[in-house]
Each structure stands twice: as structure tokens, then as C-alpha cells.
Amino acid sequence: MAERFPELLTTISGETIRTAEDFECFKKPELKALFSAFEYGEVPKRQLTGFEITAAETLPYAVKKTVQLDCEGFRFETRLYLPLSQKSPVPAFIQILNLTEKENPEVIRYLAEMGFSSAFFSAETVVTDKPEPTGLPEKDETGVLSCWGWAFSRILDYLEKEPQIDAEKVAIVGHSRGGKTTLWAFANDPRFFLCVANNSGCGGASLHRGTTGERVTDITKNFGYWFCKKFADFSGKEEMLPFDQHELMALSAPRRLYITSATEDAWACPGNEVDAIRMASAAYPLYGKKGAVLPEEIKTGVYYHEGNIAYHRREGKHDMTLFDWQGFAEYFKGVL
Ligand code: GTR
């Protein structure tokens, strides 16, 4: 790597971080403030004020509940699938669905059989995915990824009140723009247990500096509304960013991350995703833990599940498949 990256274990004042206490007390607040000011904007503050179960139905493998979440006057929906055959409380996955995506019955069934409940929300029902987004009122003061990330936390507020859910074992999952969202949501809400960022690329797991895929110029031209306005100033000037994406991941330490790439997803720059993981891993020994445990050469189709940052590179295109879900569920099950 020819680029010069901001030092993860050095504060703005130039001091070296040597302990988890100092990382928590000084470095994390610095990083959060910087990511908020220069990339994602503020997370909306609105709280969950109530919820209403508007439908319940028994499927062959799960009970489906449709739930409306009330958040100080703003309402959005989540659909929760509770496995039939398990003793409660059960761990849960929450997935963000991009655009017109729907929850996949094959995935729900597989997760139920593995002992997981699953909850879903459609990003569009929180804030629409277009240049002049509508929905959550706070969208005007922040970026759309922050608003979607906020929705994950409000679903967790509800799951904490659902006796059949183990709210201390909740994973959040997102593909691509959804993966950018989960990384930022996870950094902001320490209650989540595991964060999955699938093929998240630019603005997600991939380093901005030295990318051979999507750059700040591209993403802010096409999807500027996902971020705070200031982010576009770094177009072609990535070296001016006071952070890089390995530091977004390090905000999650010592909790668990699962990052994926795909062989035909050069736009997300898999090489930079792995470099980010390796650099983020430096935060974990502060807590007496391992970050990622990866070989020099990454093999396609292998689940690297040993460390607190799991990784795999799937054969194929930009997508989230059953192979990916199997990796997430096996890893999650193994660390419960
Ligand atoms: C791509 C975009 C990525 C990613 C993706 C998606 O076209 O350039 O940043 O977000 O779309 O969400 O599908």
C-alpha cells in the first residue's frame, strides 16, 4: 500500500493509545465526531414511543408478526419471524431491504431451522432512496444512511420488549448500501451483538485511499444524499479525509463484525476491504481479543471465522446469496 493512512492508535493530539480505556474514552469519540461531520451526518434522535402488532400469521416454520413502530409521530413497519421449533428467547437477525427487495422465504426458513428469528424492514419506508428523499423528518439534517441506521436501533428497542427474543444477541445485516448502513449503525449503537456488511464497498468496508473501484467522486455524484453534504468536498481528495474506513470498523471493537466481498464485485474493491479489516484488527488486542485471523492470500469460497472480524469472498457477482447467509448463521451460532 503506497497510501498514508490515519493512525488508528494515535489521537488527534498525537498521543499513542495503549489501553482499551483510552481507546473508549478518547479515540472512539474523536472518530465518531469525525465520521458524523465529514461522511454520514448525525444519527436522528427520535425515540420509539410505542408499537402495534397489526397482523400475526402461523407459517409452517415460523410465526410472522407485522409490527408498526411509532417513533414520536413517525411510523414504519417491521416484519418479525419467530421460529416455531425453538425454545425462547432466541437470537435474531435484522435485515435492511434495499429499494424493492422483499424478504426471502428461503432465508427465513433456513434461519428458523438454525434457531434464529429474523426481522426485516424496507429502507424505502424509512426514507426514500432518491435524490430528494422523503420520509423521516430528520433526513434534512443528515444523510440517508444515518436515517436507515437509526431504524435498526428502533427495531432493537421493540425487540427488547419482545419476550421471545434474546435482545442481547441481535445481528444486523445489509447488502451493499445496506452494508454501509449496518457499519455506521453498529458503530453508533453498542447494544448490537454482530454486524454483517455484505459487499458494502465505498462508504462501507472499503478504504477510500487507494481504491481501484468506486470513489468518493462517483458515489457523491450518484448517491450524494446518502451522506452529509460535506462528504462531496473529498471528491478526488480522499487523502484529506481525517479518517479511513478501517476506523469505522474499529469503532465496533471489541464486538463482532462479518465482512464479505465477491470475486466479480471489483467496484466494491475487495482488496481494499481486506486491507481495512487487517488495519481495523489492531484495535482488538487492546481488549485482549483477536480482530481478523486471515492468511496472506485470501481463498475464494472459504469462511474465515476464527477471529472477532469474520470474512469470506464468494465466487460471483455483487449480491447476497444463501452461501453468504450460511456463513453469517454458522458464525453467529458458533459465538453465541
Ligand atoms: C452501486 C453503488 C454502490 C452500492 C450499490 C448498491 O451501484 O455504486 O455504492 O451501494 O450500488 O447498493 O447496490
What can you see in these coordinates?
This protein has 336 residues and is α/β, with parallel strands linked by helices. It is built from eight helices and nine strands. The protein is globular, with a radius of gyration of 19 Å. The two termini are 36 Å apart. The mean pLDDT is 97. The structure holds beta-D-galactopyranuronic acid.
Question: How many strand units?
Answer: 9
Number of helices: 8
Identify the strand order in the major beta sheet: 1-2-3-5-4-6-7-8-9
Separation of the first and last Cα atoms:
36 Å
> Biggest β-sheet, characterized?
9 strands, mixed
Catalogue the ligands: beta-D-galactopyranuronic acid
Average pLDDT confidence is 97
Global morphology: globular
Structural class: alpha/beta
H/E series: HEEEEHEHEHEHHEHEH
Instruction: Tell me roughly what share of residues is in helical segments.
Output: 25-40%
- The low-confidence parts are none
Computed Rg: 19 Å
Strand content: 15-25%
Topology of helices and strands:
Elements: H1 20-40, E1 50-58, E2 62-71, E3 74-83, E4 90-97, H2 105-113, E5 117-122, H3 144-159, E6 165-175, H4 177-188, E7 194-198, H5 216-223, H6 245-250, E8 256-262, H7 270-280, E9 309-314, H8 322-335
Parallel strand pairs: 4-5, 4-6, 6-7, 7-8, 8-9
Antiparallel strand pairs: 1-2, 2-3, 3-5
Helix pairs in contact: 2-8, 3-4
Descriptors:
about 325 residues; alpha/beta; nine-stranded mixed beta sheet; globular; binds beta-D-galactopyranuronic acid
What's this, in brief?
This protein is 29% helix and 21% strand.
